[in-house]
Amino acid sequence: MHELSIANSVVELCAERAMGARVLRVTLEIGRLSAVMPDAIRFCFDVCAKDTVVEGAALEIVETPGHARCLDCGGSVAMTDLLDRCKCGSVNLELLAGSELKIKQMEVV
Ligand SMILES: [Zn+2]
Q1: Total structural domains in the chain?
Q2: pTM value?
Q3: What is the span of the domain harbouring residue 36?
């Protein structure tokens, strides 16, 4: 399962950066086009955090919208999935945002 390994590396990274302190809150930024399910991350996060300094931490997930630039007309395209087209009909798009997955913020005691 994709989400399990992501949640695991998030927990590991946070535990490493916390340097022994307890982690209270973690904010994750997940792009809408990243094919990662926030609910699955939430579930896996709790499982992975068990018996680490991250156990019991609140997980906040911020979903960032997809955004692309059309390479044919130069227009700006809001993407809700990877099959979206530009208004001009082109599928020749350069994805600028929406596929990211990063730890935005972490709060420790
Ligand atoms: Zn276009």
Answers
A1: 1
A2: 0.83
A3: 2-108
